[in-house]
Write a structure and sequence with these properties.
28 strands
């Protein structure tokens, strides 16, 4: 485990709150107030500034803690051998002397000395810059003090296994590794701001410029009306603060952090914060089938050998089932073709069958695990088979060859076994085993095998073929022809029960689901139809995909949702094609060769369980349950987070603009200025802080997954947002002025008292903005359609804000500072009745908009 960069202390986070330009201006204003004799106002400003800084501190501190806790979830793991047992542990628990097992796709967890390898190649580009994988050895090196690139018998932390497998002894961990030494030289760098934060920063700068102009104009008007220059200077600064939603960046960070935390509960671990913004705009999800759309419990259902199809019962990894032809049991003696095929499946295999407290499982590839389980159902002793035919060499499976080959010591010659895709295996074969005799593979027999494969594939079974050859040499590099066809395995990975509904949700949300699989095209089509992915769309095989030009691909891609027998290289081409068509692409991958496509996609998603370390490192998001439904949940959460930030922005801008309009009108009609700088700051504090945070923590709106994805290029502030902000701003200003003028004529207190009028304006503005916060729970739906219980934080924030307001109004110490006075019940009822029109009119606007302008599809 590398030493973490020095964490920012809580005290430093608090001090950073005072570096804000707005806060600095307010502190300067309070100092000037002291010099001009406005000591009480100066103290009040400093108190509110401290409260605002405290609120910002709480937001940033909790956001940083949330992200910190999520980083721990993404810690790398290592497979080790301890007490003769293989087990997976966190990489940070490794110690020198541990025996680790590595395989293709793994990230090396520590600097280690190789003791056993099989065609092991390591990608050391992250350490040495060498682009080609390095072939490793176990032999002792002749020279000492070699460079990292020349230490062929060592593997280094942070590098990736590009092919093969092996075992190694850990020699250095953490900061003592070569990678750790380099990391120690790096200076700490600040995290980049998200695109959304950059957009909002630009918006804040523009608002800052506008606020300065407005403050100068309104202060000038105030001076013309007889107010002192000192008073109007302080008041002008307060106007600047009233316009700028200075809490917005903190609210955005908090909303994103809340979204990330919720996503963890929904089995999606976000590695890069901007992904939360992008998720909601996803238009295409490219997904693997195995383990994502299915349970990843591959089970052999049928085998074909000696020109017979045998059915195997039982599901999952428990070795319980029967072998049947029709309704009759198959006799499984040691010389039967079925037993021979099962034994060969055990030998050309790297998986293991496990049993802990009668809980059966496998370690290794699920497809290989299915072969092991099928053999165990036949009561074959797996260890005895491997001891009888020990493995002496192997060529691991690769996406290029689409097969795995192993060589085993036999009584006479060595036995080479290859397994892989039927079309690949058949090309290697010139003979077939029938009735325990090797005979020539005729065209008729070849056609029978191909037809049987298609028949099994049409039943949604994944097909694996197996062939053998007796050889004299100990390696399998030249075993490319003259092999003997042994049989087919037909296996199924049952679809997850929740997948159909998740696919349906994607269709309704305007998201295209694209299934990418290594299965035969016939199998892929059968599964896609069962899951509801394929309806009127097309399917392409790898060969067809390869033959299509880029121009043709751009034409057919929009109506193609199934890609079968696809290689990792094709995935990158596929992602590029969708991006060029203007789509926001989420790409799911698990293998080392998926890394380029994961990096290229707008959102690279890696498997948390079956995924390799390399794929996880290249990803933006990790599925902790490898389930497609979790991606759909993540998209919903992404949409919700973005919408919450969107609503926060509208809440803050409409409230602030409404405040400025109301103040401007009062000055223009020759009335006394109703709000002091302290009053404006107080309103900003409770509205831009507490209530904005509550809106940012809102739950998903009804029908959010029935809306089309937002267009990224439109930004956060579209035409509808502008209309909503303008209308609500005018309503806030209108009801505040109406309350102010109406109660000035009918109020129970003395009309001549400026304090009373100021109090009415102060309370009316707060109540109008509180009612506007209910409007912002949903910008599209009536509040009557929203489950208000889901917005408990908003109610809590409103309650706290009103309590603060009552304290200011009714406790003499504070009311003197704020230059207001107590109101009676009648005043409160009238103010509440008038300001509630903000909610009523916006409800009417939503109905009109949804009926005539059809901006909502839900």
């Amino acid at each position: 485990e590398l030493k973490e960069e020095k964490k920012v202390s809580a005290f430093k986070i608090f001090i950073q709150q005072f570096k804000s330009l707005v806060i600095i201006i307010l502190i300067i204003a309070s100092i000037i107030s002291i010099f001009v004799g406005e000591r009480i106002e100066a103290i009040a400003i400093l108190i509110i500034v401290t409260f605002a800084a405290g609120l910002g501190f709480i937001q940033e501190y909790h956001a940083s803690k949330a992200i910190e806790s999520l980083k721990k979830l993404a810690s790398p793991s290592a497979m080790i051998v301890r007490d003769k047992n293989e087990k997976e542990i966190e990489a940070k628990e490794l110690v020198p002397g541990d025996l680790i097992i590595i395989k293709s796709g793994d990230k090396v967890p520590a600097d280690s000395r190789l003791i056993e390898i099989n065609n092991l190649k390591i990608d050391e580009a992250t350490l040495t810059g060498e682009s080609l994988p390095v072939e490793k050895q176990t032999e002792e090196l002749e020279k000492a003090n070699l460079t990292v690139a020349d230490r062929k018998n060592l593997i280094f932390m942070g590098t990736a296994v590009s092919s093969g497998n092996g075992k190694a002894i850990v020699v250095n961990t953490g900061t003592n590794t070569e990678f750790g030494k380099i990391a120690g030289l790096l200076e700490q760098t600040e995290a980049n701001k998200t695109p959304l934060q950059k957009n909002l920063d630009n918006l804040t700068k523009w608002l800052g410029l506008i606020s300065v102009i407005l403050a100068a104009m309104l202060s000038g008007l105030g001076i013309m009306k007889g107010h002192s220059i000192n008073e109007m200077f302080i008041w002008g600064i307060a106007i600047i603060v009233a316009v700028i939603p200075e809490a917005l960046p903190a609210v955005v960070t908090t909303s994103l952090a809340i979204g990330v935390k919720r996503l963890v509960k929904r089995k999606a671990l976000i590695r890069k914060l901007p992904v939360v913004e992008t998720l909601g705009a996803t238009t295409v999800i490219c997904t693997d089938k195995t383990g994502t759309l299915t349970k990843d419990e591959m089970t052999v259902r049928k085998i074909f050998t000696d020109n017979n199809i045998i059915e195997i019962t039982g599901t999952g990894y428990a070795p319980e089932g029967e072998f049947l032809t029709g309704d009759n049991k198959v006799e499984l003696d040691q010389d039967s073709p079925v037993v021979r095929l099962l034994k060969l499946g055990v030998l050309c295999n790297d998986a293991n069958l496990t049993n802990e407290s009668d809980n059966w499982g496998i370690t290794g590839d699920p497809t290989e695990g299915a072969l092991i389980v099928a053999a165990a159902k036949a009561k074959l002793k797996l260890e005895d088979i491997n001891n009888e035919f020990p493995r002496i060499s192997e060529i691991p499976f690769s996406s290029e060859t689409k097969r795995m080959t192993t060589v085993h010591k036999s009584k006479e010659n060595n036995l080479a076994i290859s397994k892989g895709a039927p079309e690949v295996i058949l090309k290697l074969c010139s003979h077939i085993r029938l009735e325990n005799k090797v005979t020539e593979l005729t065209n008729d027999l070849r056609k029978t095998i191909e037809d049987t494969g298609k028949q099994l594939a049409s039943d949604a079974l994944r097909i694996l073929a197996l062939c053998t050859k007796e050889i004299k040499e100990e390696n399998a590099e030249n075993v490319n022809e003259g092999m003997v066809f042994e049989g087919l395995f037909g296996m199924i990975d049952p679809p997850r029960p929740e997948i159909k509904s998740a696919i349906k949700v994607c269709r309704e949300a305007g998201i295209k689901t694209v299934m990418i699989t290594g299965d035969h095209k016939i199998t892929a089509i059968a599964i896609a139809k069962e899951l509801g992915i394929l309806k009127d769309e097309n399917a392409l095989s790898g060969e067809e995909f390869e033959a299509i030009s880029e121009n043709e691909l751009s034409k057919v891609i929009e109506n193609t949702v199934v890609f079968a027998r696809i290689s990792p290289e094709h995935k990158l081409k596929l992602v590029n094609a969708f991006i060029e068509k203007g789509h926001v692409v989420a790409m799911i991958g698990d293998g080392v060769n998926d890394a380029p496509a994961l990096k290229k996609a707008d959102i690279g998603i890696a498997m948390g369980i079956t995924g390799t370390d390399v794929s996880r490192e290249a990803s933006d998001m990790i599925l902790t349950d490898d389930n497609f439904s979790s991606i759909v949940s993540a998209v919903e959460e992404g949409r919700t987070t973005f919408e919450n930030i969107h609503k926060c922005l509208i809440l803050l801008l409409s409230g602030n603009i409404g405040t400025i309009i109301a103040l401007s009108v009062v000055i223009l009609i020759n009335q006394p200025i109703p709000l002091s700088s302290v009053n404006i700051l107080f309103i900003n504090f409770i509205m831009d802080g507490l209530i904005a945070i509550a809106i940012g923590a809102g739950m998903p709106e009804p029908g959010i997954m029935k809306q089309k994805p937002r267009k990224v290029k439109n930004g956060i502030f579209d035409k509808n947002s502008i209309i909503f902000t303008v209308i609500s701003s005018i309503l806030i200003a209108g009801v505040t002025i109406a309350s102010y003028l109406f109660l000035a004529e009918t109020g129970s207190s003395d009309l001549k008292q400026d304090k009373y009028a100021a109090t009415v304006f102060f309370v009316a503005l707060i109540m109008a903005r509180v009612f506007n916060s209910f409007n912002c729970i949903s910008l599209n739906h009536s509040i009557l359609k929203i489950k208000l219980i889901n917005n408990k934080y908003l109610f809590l924030a409103i309650l706290i804000s009103l309590i603060f307001t009552l304290i200011v109004v009714y406790i003499n110490f504070f009311s003197n500072i704020f230059k207001i006075q107590a109101l009676d019940l009648n005043d409160w009822l009238l103010i509440t009745g008038i300001t509630s029109l903000v909610l009523v009119f916006m409800e009417i606007w939503k109905i009109v908009k949804n009926k005539f302008f059809k901006t909502v599809t839900a």
